[in-house]
Here is the input.
Amino acid sequence: MSASDAEHIPIRTISSLTGVNPITLRAWERRYGLIRPLRTAKGHRLYTHAHVEKIRRVLTLVERGVPISQVGDLIDAIPESDAAPKVPRQLREYFDRMTHAIARLDEQELDQIYDEALSLHSIDTITRQLILPLLVHFGERWKTIIGAVAEEHFLATYLRSKLGSRVLHQMRYATGPRLIAACAPGEHHEIGLLLFALEAQAAGLRTVVLGADTPLEELAIAQSRSGTDGIVISSSIDPAPGQLEHALPKLVKQVSVPVFVGGGTANRHKRAIRSAGAVPLGTDLEDGVRLIIAKLKEEDSNS
Here is the structure.
């Protein structure tokens, strides 16, 4: 297998990296010719890191208000510096060691390496520049290596456990307002949600994490029972039809606390989220937490 073959990435991994729903990616390809993936002999789409860069440039233009039908004429004006996550030199050794530990399904070794890396770098740096490239790497291996699916599942399970334990550990030190944090309906990627919970708790907020694929109607009930001060919804995929237009406004009306939406959805659908009465947070964890704190203080002063 050549070096170029090794970087081919399936559509499900591309969706996780960019937050763009596979249906949207296919539409961009068929209707506008924006992203043209490679094809396997069986017709499956395969992408490269260059495609990831281009998808992010498309999202940048859309965020600036450019209609998707006009993006093709402007795409070259956006620099290609928004590259897919790459492993910097100072983290390369950790990447190689973690790769070997994951291939052996050695949780103890993986845990030691992860803790060592975290002792020298922030959790955000480790996630963006080490964990995401690992997820891409093991997302590619399943196409050509027997047992790679088990490796990928092993890594995802480990990260959920590791980050989840950190959330529980830090909760004892947080004394500020309480938030319900949950993944949107159809959102099965909990890593971003757990990272948000860690960032929020580091800022003194308390989080009640409900996890993946949470119906919005359940959030209203959970908030009423818990008496929390806000609701945070994590969403990287495009919402189902009617979710932003009907389900989200209904949730906002049912509760008397602010509703926040974070993740890629918040960047792509800011206007719809604001129209629903919710607050878009974007993808930057630190900025999102600051916005939540400011909004909660505003609500408290108005009460």
The chain has three domains: 3-77, 89-168, 175-302.
